[in-house]
Specification:
- This protein is α/β, with parallel strands linked by helices and about 325 residues long.
- It is built from ten helices and 14 strands.
- The two termini are about 35 Å apart.
């Protein structure tokens, strides 16, 4: 078992949560960010943690065994590849890439080097999601025929390729995980921009999964009231997981008797899902095991969302590819 010393690259809004968890788990060694204000905040909170603006300092540091990449998605391929080439295990925030071939390449590199590659599909580590998965495996819903995930929120910055790439990786990975079915093809995909540009802030995707199960995913950056809900319908019962509720997050409804419902007790919800995810990464690195949300899982999600984006945008998709290419060049 190898003692882990982890570096985090990117300590913006979400990166700070990653930094906090790895620090509290006693494995954080270095934090890297191009923004001096972000590094100053890290140094103020965690004086003993090293900081740097140059990711090459991490590559060249033999003490660093593993790296968490929490940078914009268009930088993931280059950054993750560099860390794998340097022999570091890698946790990368979702999506692993917006290009399926890149996700496949990174997975192959990690496998060839015997390294851990884990994607930040956070909901695969959520206690309520795992409880629902157990119920489905036990047959509580019968045969699963339909799933619907709605992830609606407000985002004033809209600083990603689209709301789909920001939020739908959670929906696709969670839906596939709890039902045990992989996506087969995109049935329908529509999106629009309330700002009348190419950055879609509302998207709706229809997906066929294995065994004919149908999944519907709706994501939004413009909904003032947060709505985060997963519905899974089986031949016997229907489950609703509402992550915005403090109590009764997971409820099972009988399909044939409206008076029969079950509030599923979740006694372990006080544990932060992100802490569980970070613990899982550390454990995989120490023991050389594949992560629950490994590179193959990341590839599966990226491939289906890439397909959906092609349906949504058609020729307009080239505009986003050119923007991402230009951004990636400025980061060199």
């Amino acid at each position: 078992m190898t003692e882990q010393k982890i570096a985090v690259i990117g300590c913006g809004v979400w990166g700070r949560n990653i930094v906090r968890n790895f620090y509290n788990l006693g494995v954080l060694k270095v934090v890297c960010d191009m923004d001096e204000e972000n590094l100053a905040k890290v140094k103020e909170q965690y004086p003993e943690v090293e900081v740097t603006k140059d990711f090459h300092d991490i590559i060249n540091n033999p003490e660093i065994t593993s790296v968490a990449v929490v940078t914009p998605s268009h930088t993931h391929y280059k950054m993750v590849h560099a860390m794998l080439d340097a022999g570091k295990n890698v946790y990368v925030e979702k999506p692993i890439s917006t290009v399926a071939q890149e996700a496949k390449d990174l997975t192959e590199v990690a496998n060839s080097k015997g390294l851990v590659l884990m994607v930040g599909h956070l909901l695969l580590y959520h206690p309520a999601v795992n409880r629902l998965k157990m119920l489905i495996e036990e047959g509580a819903l019968g045969e699963v025929v339909y799933a619907q995930s709605d992830r609606l929120n407000i985002n004033f910055f809209k600083n990603d390729r689209s709301v789909m790439w920001d939020l739908a990786p959670h929906d696709v990975s969670m839906m596939s995980y709890v039902t045990g079915k992989n996506p087969v093809r995109v049935i329908s995909a529509v999106g629009c921009s309330s700002d009348k540009n190419d950055i879609m802030d509302i998207t709706h995707i229809g997906i066929e999964f294995e065994d004919g199960m149908i999944g519907q995913i709706s994501d939004s950056w413009i909904t003032p009231r947060k709505h985060v809900q997963l519905l899974v319908r089986g031949t016997k019962a229907t489950a609703i997981l509402d992550d915005t509720l403090r109590e009764n997050k997971l409820v099972i409804f009988d399909n044939f008797n409206k008076d029969i419902t079950q509030n599923v007790q979740l006694d372990y919800l006080e544990i932060e899902p992100l802490k569980l995810e970070c613990q899982h990464f550390i454990s995989c690195c120490e023991n050389g095991k594949k992560a629950r949300s490994d590179g193959d899982n990341g590839f599966m999600v990226t491939a289906i969302l890439e397909q959906a984006e092609k349906v949504m945008l058609g020729e307009r998709r080239k505009n986003l590819d050119e923007v991402n290419f230009a951004l990636s060049r400025t980061k060199k």
